[in-house]
Structure formats: C-alpha cells, structure tokens
User: What shape does this take?
Amino acid sequence: MKYMISWLERPQGSAVEYENAQKRILEVFGQWQTPDNLTIELFVVRVGEWGGHMLVECDDPLVVHKACSTFPAFEFKACPVVPVEDAVRVELEAIAWRDGLKGQ
Assistant: This one.
C-alpha cells in the first residue's frame, strides 16, 4: 500500500522553544533509519514552512504509524493512495456497473 504522509510542525511557544524544537527534530532525524519494509518514493519539504510530504510504500500500517510517532513535534496525516490510472480504471468499472442497473 502506498501512503502520502504530510506533516506540519506542532505549534510551540516562544522563539527559543521553536529553536530548541528544531534542534531536537534534526537530532532525532539524523539518527533515524528507514525501516526495511518501508520504501520512500518521494521526500520533499514545503518551501518556507516546517513541513513536507513523503510518498511511501509499506504493507504494514503499524510501520507507518511508528514512523510518524517517532517525531512528536509534527502533526502527521497519512493517507492511503493509489496510482491515478488504477483509480480511473475502477471508477470506469463502477460507472459501467451503475449504468447497467435495471430501472433507470
């Protein structure tokens, strides 16, 4: 299953607290290892923000949950996603089925 994981930094307090949080985030991230059963396909940061997006593939949702839980300074949203060509194919199948219903 593919997931699009998006995140933003949680609100902190003062400028000093933000600076300390950023140091800690980079300290933790610098030692984090990608789990063996999680493949990162895209990893980007939004320009001018403390957040970004990561497209991953993983068959175990708990691995995705653990990866997000590793960085509590961020609010994460992990959405299962499918390739557009697959989505269009099943949408067309659903439309064809619906159009074939009796009593139209």
